[in-house]
Amino acid sequence: MLLFINKKRFISIGILLTLIILMIIIYIDTPTTIYSIDIQNIQLNNVENHTKQLLPRVLCLILTTPKNFLSRVIAVNETWGPRCDRYFFVTESPTQTMTPEQINFTQQIPIAPIQNITSGYGHLTQKSTLAFLFAYEKYFNDFDWVVKADDDTYLIVENLKAFLSQQNTSEPVTFGYNFKIIVSKGYHSGGASYVLSRESLRRFYEAHNDLNSTCRKDGGAEDVEIAKCLRSKGVYPGKSLDKQNRELFHPLPYISHFRGNIPNWLKQYAENPLQTVS
After folding, report:
1. Is the pLDDT at 20 greater than 60, yes or no?
2. 146 neighbors 164 (Cβ within 8 angstroms)
3. CATH class assigned to 58-269
4. Cβ(81)–Cβ(62) below 8 Å
5. Is residue 94's pLDDT more than 80?
6. pLDDT at res. 184
7. For a Cys-Cys bond, which of 126, 129, 196, 269 suits 200, CB 3.0-4.6 Å?
8. Shortest CA distance to 247 belongs to which of 198, 197, 192, 200?
9. Which pLDDT belongs to residue 123?
C-alpha cells in the first residue's frame, strides 16, 4: 500500500512538474517570439524609412544584357537596386534569342523603355548615352543625381547618398574613380560606376543636341567617350574621396582590392596615389 501511495505521489509530482515546466516554456517562448518579430519589423521599417528619407534623390541606371538576367540581374534586383530612389535596367531585348524563362523575368524587373539598343560590348557608349538621354527626358526634375552602373557592380546606396548629400547637384560635376589619362582633366572608370549631377545631365543632353557636337553616339571606350562629351560642355570630375582621403569608388573586383593585387596599369592611370595597408 505504501509503495502504491509513493508511486502515485511520484506520478502526481511528475505531472505537476511537467505542467509547471510547460507553463514556464510557454510564458518565456511566446513573448520572445513576438519580441523577435517586432524587432525585425522595426529594423526593416527603419531601413526602409531611412532610405526614403535620405536626400539627395538618386536614379540608378544599370547596364546589362539578357544573358545576365538570371544571374547578375537577379542579384542586383534583390539587393542594392531597390535602395535607389528609382532604378532601371538598361538592356537590349532581342526576344527572338531569349529563353522563355528570360522573357518571363523581364516582366518582374524595371527595364528602361529604350528602343534600338545594339547588342555587344563594343556598343556600351551607345547604351550609356541612350540611358542618360532617357533619364533627362523622363526624370530630369525628379532626381538630384544619376548613377551609371554595370550589372556586376555593387553599390552601398546609403554611403553614396551620404557622400552626395555634401555635394551640389547644381554644379557641372561628376563623381567616380578618377583616371588621369587620355581625357582632359581625366575620366571615371566605367567599371567602378560613376555619378552625374543634375546639371551635368542637362549639359550632356545639350551636347547631344548641339549640331556642332563632337560627342560620339556609339563606339570607342564608353567611360572615355562619355567623359569627352561632358568636357565639351564644361563638366569636370570631382574628388571622390572621404575625409581620410580614401577612395569611394573601386575599379577592381573586390577580392583584388581586399588582397592588394593591384595591377601596374592602375598605378599608372590612377589620379590619386594608391594606398595599401601592410
Report:
1. no
2. no
3. alpha beta
4. yes
5. no
6. 93
7. 196
8. 192
9. 96
Using CA atoms, how far residue 138 sits from 44, 50, 112, 113, 171, in Å, is: 31, 26, 10, 11, 21
pLDDT in tens, 25-60: 333 343 433 222 232 332 333 334 444 556 899 999
* Sign of the torsion formed by the C-alpha atoms of 96, 99, 103 and 109: negative
Of 3, 250, 48, 16, the closest CA to residue 149 belongs to 250
Mean of pLDDT values over 200-221 = 95
- Give the DSSP letter string of 49-98: HHHHH-SS-EEEEEE--GGGIIIIIHHHHHTTGGGSSEEEEE----GGGS
| Least confident among 23-27, 105-109, 199-203, 265-269 | 23-27
Ramachandran angles phi, psi of 183, nearest 5°: -100, 145
Per-residue HEC secondary structure of 3-23 comes to HHHHHHHHHHHHHHHHHHHHH
Q: What is the pLDDT of residue 4?
A: 36
b or e along 88-103 (b: 16 or more beta carbons within 10 Å of the residue's beta carbon)?
A: bbbbbbeeeebeeebe
User: Where would I find the beta strands (DSSP E) of the chain?
Assistant: 58-63, 86-90, 145-150, 173-176, 178-179, 187-188, 194-197, 236-237
Pairing relationship of beta strands 145-150 and 194-197 according to DSSP bridges? antiparallel
Mean pLDDT of the chain: 84
Closest by CA to 226, choosing from 200, 198, 199, is 200
What span, in angstroms and rounded, lies between the C-alpha atoms of 86 and 110? 9
156, 161, 166, 171 alpha-carbon torsion, rounded to 10°: 110
Place of cell 519580441: 35
